[in-house]
């Protein structure tokens, strides 16, 4: 089954404790991206990657890191989480440019930073 | 940069009735793609319908259809015969069709309630 898998789905952590949210897709997609969703703000892009070893900042990259060492994986790293990073996070992938180009989303990771 | 605006934060519809969700976007490009995503309480983001800008014909997927007005930069979603399972957050999204364009820009969403 074609899917984007994120882990963990739920996480409660404390300020400053490094954490990683993993993301893996099995569709051989070139493009992968991370979004955060906050009430009233919609989905905002954190980082994206157009291919292996190619990453770039989205709209809200501060406090986050990513890496793309393999095509299928795109982990999101919070080196020193803060309470303002409490949010719902989505990983997504797509084939890249051209039609149809829609994003396939993971199921979301609810992160709480105390 | 492109922007997507959903002017209705919340809407409600009676079961079996029809509802239209609004979306407008701002772009200087002539070729692009538009999408509607649904996010039910389960949080999963589900593609509802998509439209290519150069196609005049409005896209339709079962009970879901769009009214695409390119000149007005409007992309509304019509849900016919609304069902309880249609209750969700709906997001409109824009993507350039240009070479090297991968990113989707989302609106802030419209929360749809379905009244039994």
For the residues shown, what is the average pLDDT of chain A?
A: 93
> What share of the residues of chain A lie within helices?
under 10%
Beta-strand percent range of chain B: over 45%
Distance between the termini of chain B: 41 Å
Structural category of chain B is: mainly beta
Portion of residues in helices of chain B? under 10%
Based on CA atoms alone, the radius of gyration of chain A comes out at 13 Å
How much of the residues of chain A is beta strand, in percent?
over 45%
What does this structure look like?
The complex is a heterodimer of chains A (114) and B (116). Chain A has 114 residues and is mainly beta. Chain A has no helices and 11 strands. In chain A, strands 2, 4, 5, 6, 9, 10 and 11 form a 7-stranded mixed β-sheet that branches. Chain A has a 4-stranded antiparallel β-sheet with strand order 1-3-8-7, with no helix packed on it. The radius of gyration of chain A is 13 Å and the shape is globular. In chain A, 37% of the residues are buried. Chain B is mainly β and 116 residues long. Chain B contains no helices and 12 strands. Chain B has strands at 3-5, 10-14, 19-21, 24-26, 32-39, 46-52, 60-61, 64-69, 74-79, 88-96, 104-106, 110-115. In chain B, strands 2, 5, 6, 10, 11 and 12 form a 6-stranded mixed β-sheet that branches. Chain B has a 4-stranded antiparallel β-sheet with strand order 3-9-8-7, with no helix packed on it. In chain B, strand 5 and strand 6 form a beta hairpin. The mean pLDDT of chain B is 93. Chains A and B meet through strand 4, strand 5 and strand 9 of A and strand 6 and strand 10 of B.
């Amino acid at each position: 089954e074609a899917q984007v898998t994120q882990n963990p789905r739920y996480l409660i952590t404390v300020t400053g404790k490094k954490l990683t949210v993993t993301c893996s897709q099995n569709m051989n997609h070139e493009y992968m991206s991370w979004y955060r969703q906050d009430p009233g703000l919609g989905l905002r892009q954190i980082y994206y990657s157009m291919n292996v070893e190619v990453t770039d900042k989205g709209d809200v990259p501060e406090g986050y890191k990513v890496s793309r060492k393999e095509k299928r994986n795109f982990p999101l790293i919070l080196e020193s989480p803060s309470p303002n990073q409490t949010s719902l996070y989505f990983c997504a992938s797509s084939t890249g440019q051209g039609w149809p180009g829609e994003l396939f989303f993971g199921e979301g990771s609810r992160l709480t930073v105390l | 940069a492109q922007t997507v605006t959903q002017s209705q934060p919340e809407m409600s519809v009676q079961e079996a009735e029809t509802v239209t969700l609004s979306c407008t976007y701002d772009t200087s490009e002539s070729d692009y793609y538009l999408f509607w995503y649904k996010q039910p309480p389960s949080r999963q983001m589900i593609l509802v319908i998509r439209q290519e800008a150069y196609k005049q014909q409005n896209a339709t997927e079962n009970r879901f259809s769009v009214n695409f007005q390119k000149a007005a930069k409007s992309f509304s979603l019509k849900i016919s015969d609304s069902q309880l399972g249609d209750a969700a957050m709906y997001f409109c999204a824009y993507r350039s069709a240009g070479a090297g364009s991968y990113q989707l820009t989302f609106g802030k969403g419209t929360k749809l309630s379905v009244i039994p």
